[in-house]
Amino acid sequence: MENLIDIKGVRHAYDTAAGKLPVLDGLEVSVKEGGFCAVVGPSGCGKSTLTRLIAGLMHPDEGEVWLHGEQVKGPRSTVGMAFQNPVLLEWRTILQNVMLPLEIVPGGLKGKAAVERAESLLALVGLEGFEDKRPSELSGGMRQRASLCRALVHQPDVLILDEPFGALDAFTREDLWQTMHEVKAKEPFTAVLITHDLRESIFLGDQVVVLSGRPARTQYVMEITRDGPPKLDDLYTPEASERLATLRHQIEIAQGRAEEGVSA
Amino acid sequence: MTGTLRKILVPTAAMIIFLILWEALVWVMGWPNYKMASPSDLIPAYERYWELFLIMGWQTLWRTVLGLLLAIIVGTAIGMIMGFSRTMRDALYPLLVGFNAIPKATVVPIVALMFVGAHDFNTVLIAFMISFFPIAVSVSIGLSTLEPEYRDILRSLGASQTTIFWKIALPKTLPEFFGALKVSVTLAFIGTNLMEIVSPHGRGLGALFDSGKTNSDYPLMFAVLIALALLGIVLYYVVVALEKVFAGWAERQPG
């Protein structure tokens, strides 16, 4: 199958008071259609810059970002974004929050169709009955679910998730991991997930990309194959432990604490 | 007690208690009315001059409201300029702070000389000058502290700056804006009265206060103060009502 996301040889540096600060240096990421790419790496290695590149919110100094066979030159209405901070609009109800992208993207659903679309997504993530609540009346996990619905409502071809579960407690987070799989089964999308949680990366991703420390380059790619629907129990198998150990070792290399080629 | 009844009864009771204490204080200390008039001295003053109070009160009110409206328009515009552009913020802040630091009482005679005879204009101008600062600052802070994620979500969908402003930046700034407006309402009253008291043959409650002073009618002076306080309360609650309508979402349910 054709790659939906292709990031080729991307280099980028920010202008700071102290001069150029290179953040990305030789980034290569390819995600096939329907794929779920989890990106892990040391703090401050430029993971969020990667999401902004894919969303077309900035241009790389060098290299190319391709979506669906088209080079990304600016914002496209075919991406959905969710962040660690759910950034719901407090003056809107949950339903109105979810419908926000439909008001902006050209040709978005209007009126009754928009409401039905938003309601069906909310039901899918277990927020049925909360449509008319304000964000402040919801728990952190529920807000994140609503934020996820907003990211999906306009049927984007790419879902960009920048640590959306980072601020949640462990149990809520695991609940949301399972919700992600359920949603993906009904609403197919291609996703790039930025995370600090290695368990999350192997549970959600079918491909885990480890970035090196700043400036980031693609250091290691792990393909994850699953037989059957994913279960949380899968995280407690010897196979999962082995994957986690490998990733852990790669992160240590990225942090400069271990040498390449030396086993963990 | 039901909620609405309580909301009316409690403040009313507080006001009555305040008047009783005031009356008692003047009575106990045996003060003559030129030292401090008591509430019972005020009633004859209102009876004698009620027509003047209505006319002057209206003049004070409309000039204050007009000054305030100008402050809202100009303050919001300056706030938007400073909120969206870092350079403009750096450039304008010291100027604004300096301007705000000048006591407006010193500006009053300058303005009065500059536009001799234009009483209405002068009064509105001072009310505006004294009250736009909090609005400008609050709007600029509201806009410049907008979390980048809000912008990113809308921009990634291809939204224009105007759309981002109307859909997110403006509503998100409303609670700060109304907070500032509550401060500005009171300030605008101070501005109006400063001018009314100073300008000769002036109009409005300030002029009525001044004529009480010239005629040694001390109860009248106190009566004007109370009338001003009442007008202030009315305008303040108008702002509160508007806030409920436009930014009621920011108020969290207790519990």
Which helices and strands, and how do they pair?
The complex is a heterodimer of chains A (264) and B (255).
Chain A: E1 3-16, E2 19-32, E3 36-40, H1 47-54, E4 62-67, E5 70-71, E6 79-83, H2 94-104, H3 111-124, H4 140-152, E7 158-162, H5 170-186, E8 190-194, H6 198-204, E9 207-211, E10 218-223, H7 238-254
Chain B: H1 3-29, H2 39-84, H3 86-101, H4 104-114, H5 119-144, H6 148-156, H7 161-198, H8 204-214, H9 218-247
Helix pairs in contact in B: 2-3, 2-5, 2-7, 2-8, 2-9, 3-5, 4-5, 4-7, 5-7, 6-7, 7-8, 7-9, 8-9
Largest sheet of chain A: 6 strands, mixed
Report the CATH superfamily of the largest domain in chain B.
Answer: MetI-like
| Count of DSSP-assigned helices of chain A | 7
Most extensive protein-chain contact, per-chain counts: A-B, 27 and 22 residues
Strand arrangement within the widest β-sheet of chain A reads 6-7-8-3-9-10
Please tell me about this protein's structure.
The complex is a heterodimer of chains A (264) and B (255). Chain A is α/β, with parallel strands linked by helices and 264 residues long. Chain A has a domain at 1-78 and 191-264: 3-Layer(aba) Sandwich (Rossmann fold). Helices cover 33% and strands 25% of the residues of chain A. In chain A, the strands form 2 sheets. Chain A has a 6-stranded mixed sheet with strand order 6-7-8-3-9-10, with helices on both faces. Chain A has a 4-stranded antiparallel sheet with strand order 2-1-4-5, covered by helices on one side. The model of chain A has no long low-confidence stretch (mean pLDDT 87). Chain B has 255 residues and is mainly alpha-helical. Chain B has 2 domains: 1-30; 41-249, MetI-like (MetI-like fold, Orthogonal Bundle). Chain B has helices at residues 3-29, 39-84, 86-101, 104-114, 119-144, 148-156, 161-198, 204-214, 218-247. In chain B, helix 2 (39-84) packs antiparallel against helix 3 (86-101) and helix 8 packs antiparallel against helix 9 (218-247). The longest helix of chain B has 46 residues, at 39-84.
